[in-house]
Design brief:
It contains eight helices and six strands. It is of the alpha/beta class and 217 residues long. Helix 1 packs across helix 3 and helix 3 packs parallel to helix 5. The longest helix is centred in the N-terminal third of the chain and has 18 residues. The protein is globular, with a radius of gyration of 17 Å.
Length: 217
Amino acid sequence: MIKAIFWDNDGVLVDTEGIFFRANQETLADLGISLGWEQFEEISLVRGGSVLQLAQKPGTEAFYKLRDKRDALYADLLTREPLVMEGVRDVLEALTGKYAMGIVTSSGHEHFEIIHRRSGLLPYFQFALTMKDCSRFKPHPEPYLKAIALSGCRPEECLAIEDSPRGLVSAVNAGIRCLVVPSRFTRGGDFPGAFQILNNIRELPATLEELQAGILD
């Protein structure tokens, strides 16, 4: 019996992955470094690293300065266009009150606040875990282990909704089932260990009903 649902943020609730890519691409372009989507996908979405390592060594003052520049650009871009993914609001409305729900993201808290200042989604959730709440990030299981503890449920009573390989690995290694809803950027990728792969978020309520009825194992 599923009692708690943990949602990834970027690429699942809000359409921000393309904006984050653009912020990194423009930051590196100023240094004469060309960044392609496949390179960004492998370093950021699969490995959970920073593409800024293409320009500066992580942990150095130069790296942090470059990251600050990227973060400022990303924050500005986030304020310019609608972000909530199609169908998300309807699905959250359908599920509210039936499950405990939380957001589990490796995004920085400042950017998370900028995103949800306009989204109107936070009232659907009992808690949100961002980068400031964890010492290790996806694909490490710590974010989901913390979510399990906050929910008060057992791992087998929890379900994660993810769109990226690193998020999937994080959830699975925390001992919980993970439904993958690929975004327009991760569609066509490999998701070994996923409990099920959905075409879009609107399929989630029916999938949950089948899972609760024991139709899906």
